[in-house]
Amino acid sequence: MENTLLIPILLLAAGILLPVILYFRYPETVRAILHDLRVLRILHYVLLAGLGASLCLKEPVASEGIPVVSLLIRFSLFIITLIYAAVFAIVSNNMADEEGDKLTNPHRPLFASGINRKRYLNAGIFSLLIALVIAGLTEWIIFYCIAFISTVYFLYSCKPFRLKRIPFVSKFLIGINSLAVAVCGYALAGGTPGQFPLIWALFILFPLTLAANFVDLKDTEGDRSMGIRTFPVIFGEYKARIIIALCTLVAYGMAGILLNLYWLYPLNGLMAVLHIHLLFRKPYREKPVFLIYLSSLLALNVILFFHRFFN
After folding, report:
1. What is d(CA 262, CA 87) in angstroms, rounded to the nearest whole number?
2. H or E stretch including 213?
3. Which residues neighbour 76 within 8 Å (Cβ) at sequence distance 6 or greater?
4. Helix, strand, coil: what percent of the chain each, to 5?
5. What is the CATH number of the domain that holds 178?
6. What range does the domain containing 83 cover?
7. Terminal CA-CA length for the chain
8. Cα separation of 33 and 39, whole Å?
9. Which of 32, 64, 189, 219 suits a disulfide with 109, CB 3.0-4.6 Å?
10. Is residue 33 a contact partner of residue 123, using CB atoms and an 8 Å limit?
11. 3-state secondary structure of 285
12. How many domains does the chain have?
């Protein structure tokens, strides 16, 4: 084993084993956090990192000199740090949104498990520190990415800022975080952050981010009670679905144009129709929409990675 891989492998093992060890000391807290981990949202960011990597790796010479094993370990460590950072974001958001969650998310840990609030908050802060330590010992780009997106989420969710209350600004912040993760994936695959393709940055910032507004549909009443002006609160649920559907169409259309593969257009159109159908299906359920969204993002990653073979 190369000495250069020893530390990353040890960090990876430590990141995986730490929750197991802590479970024996704080079983209720660890169980509550794991149960509320919001895997689909984490996968959104993992796939965006994959999108950035695929944009870099689709060029035959882009990743020369980076061993495959090293690349896989670095990405695994990035995913680990994302998960720990997500715990901090989830904990801080839950504590800030406690009033609204009473209406729309009574299953959250602060209500359902009777968890110790101070211990719960400390667990979130500890998770962020672990994410930053692992990132700092791995790659500078991972450290800066985790520090940046965690800061943005704090400004987005927590007092005194609570920028999620400001229409459009709140979603732009989510788009900025999404782009930051994609740029990090691009850099980890061997690219230079400043060379991230502008057209793909615009794709992530606007149509993709706006299409992801479906996550607010189920929280309308809680957001309204806290003065958080999401699309459903501002326009009403039906008009918000129409706006989100239009953004979804633009996202699929723009992705198809950027890929420029004629055989892909029918499949792309079919996925868009299914996605929009799930947005309007009664009763509305977020999980199927999220799954089709993530499946489309995964397909985009794969097609980008093998783009030169398709051509």
Report:
1. 41
2. none
3. 12
4. 80, 0, 20
5. 1.10.600
6. 3-310
7. 38
8. 12
9. 32
10. yes
11. coil
12. 1
CA atoms of 253 and 264, how far apart (whole Å):
11
Hey, what are 155's tokens? 């400004």
Residue in the block written with tokens 């309007």: 280
Mean pLDDT by 10 residues, the chain (311 residues): 75 95 94 94 97 86 65 94 97 88 78 82 97 95 98 93 87 95 95 95 96 92 86 93 97 95 93 97 95 97 81 58
Q: Any idea which residue has 């398709």 for tokens?
A: 310
Q: Which amino acid type is present at position 99?
A: E
DSSP 8-class letter at 215: G
Fill in the amino acid letter for 85: A
Mutual angle of helices 140-157 and 68-96, in 10-degree steps: 20
Closest CA to 10 of 73, 93, 55, 69: 73
* Distance set, CA 75 to CA 78, 176, 201, 280, 290 (Å): 5, 20, 20, 36, 23
In this structure, the number of other CB atoms found within 10 A of the CB of residue 113 comes to 17
Distance of CA 241 to the CA centre of its chain: 21
